[in-house]
Design a protein that fits this description.
By secondary structure, the protein is an alpha+beta fold. The protein contains eleven helices and nine strands. The chain is about 50% helix and about 15% strand.
């Protein structure tokens, strides 16, 4: 079957495949690393609708034209952006064999913040005929309500009820439940949020959806941003929260100064209004990560010490952002 795909690639792109290697083959996608007579490429077959693939390619093209470094897409000999493989679009994109960024210096944190701010700022104005299908703003209220309900009703598995890990979670849970309820009420009742969710998609930000250091390739001219499969209209907090989570996991603690270094660099490229800052801080204050930690039962794969460390850093992070959100909220209702 794979050989048949290679033959299709050679035919549709008028090239010879010299070497190839499957780097991902799941129920969601097939990704192949290719060395060809026309250069180095990554072949992707996402098991998504044509509308989804068109939206991804439209977003990449829009941002690429505005100076964001994104691998180019090779058109087929028929001048199409992809060909069909087993009822799904297959795309060929330029491969850049470059190191990924590491969050280990102030300069690299600032570079990450600047890059993300530039993406969000330059995404305003993007329009797609399929955009209404991929508007994250429309899902926020239900997402908050579902997570709030889960946190308020969470109960540990009986088999784990006497473990030290479960005891630690139960001791910390009231704080996270209160923070969730406070943040949800603060955000969902604010004029800023009500205004934002009614904003037409073309006036909203595009979010990468998986903005982590593994998708940021380092070169002299800046960061090349790859893997846009989760791109959608949404709010900057979704991408910033991903950076923050990875930074905290690497350092194993809440590091306010490191986050502010990212944020200040971000805001230089994408200054957020006061109303947007309320949404930013409120969403970062909501315990999304803790809800996922409990729902996915991630604590079962962690030691007692790891659970304690996770809970401690999440508590400190949420306390900080909750304070910032409340300060923004006072101004929002004036």
């Amino acid at each position: 079957m794979l050989q048949a795909l290679i033959q299709q690639i050679e035919t549709h792109y008028s090239l010879t495949v010299k070497n190839y290697k499957v780097i991902r083959d799941t129920d969601k996608s097939l990704v192949i690393r290719l060395d060809t007579s026309r250069g180095k490429w990554i072949g992707k077959c996402l098991y998504v609708s044509p509308e989804r693939q068109e939206f991804i390619l439209d977003a990449e093209e829009y941002l690429r034209k505005r100076g964001i470094l994104i691998p180019s897409t090779l058109p087929t000999v028929q001048k199409e952006r992809y060909f069909w493989w087993k009822e799904y679009p297959f795309v060929l994109q330029r491969r850049h064999d470059l190191p990924v960024i590491t969050f280990n210096t102030p300069e690299r944190l600032q570079l990450t913040g600047r890059t993300l701010g530039r993406i969000h700022a330059r995404s305003i104005g993007f329009s797609s005929r399929h955009g209404h299908l991929f508007n994250g703003a429309l899902k926020w209220e239900k997402d908050y309500q579902d997570k709030l309900a889960f946190l308020s009703k969470w109960q540990p598995c009986l088999s784990d009820s006497f473990s030290g890990k479960i005891a630690a979670i139960c001791n910390a849970l009231p704080f996270f439940q209160t923070a969730a309820a406070t943040t949800a009420k603060l955000l969902l009742t604010s004029p800023s949020f009500a205004k934002w969710i009614k904003t037409p998609p073309e006036q909203q930000f595009l979010c990468h959806g998986d903005f982590n250091n593994g998708n940021l390739l380092m070169r002299k001219k800046g960061l090349i941003v790859i893997d846009w499969e989760d791109v959608r209209y949404d709010f900057p907090s979704k991408d910033l929260s991903r950076v923050l989570y990875l930074l905290m996991r690497k350092q194993n603690r809440w590091n306010k100064s490191a986050f502010l270094r990212v944020l200040h660099a971000y805001l230089k490229e994408n200054p957020l209004s006061a109303s947007h800052q309320l949404i930013l801080y409120a969403d970062l204050a909501f315990p999304h990560i803790v809800e996922r930690f409990l729902r996915k039962q991630e604590y079962l794969r962690m030691t007692h010490a790891q659970v304690l460390s996770f809970l401690q850093r999440e508590r400190k992070k949420i306390a900080y952002f909750l304070q910032e959100a409340k300060a923004c909220c006072q101004a929002d209702f004036r």
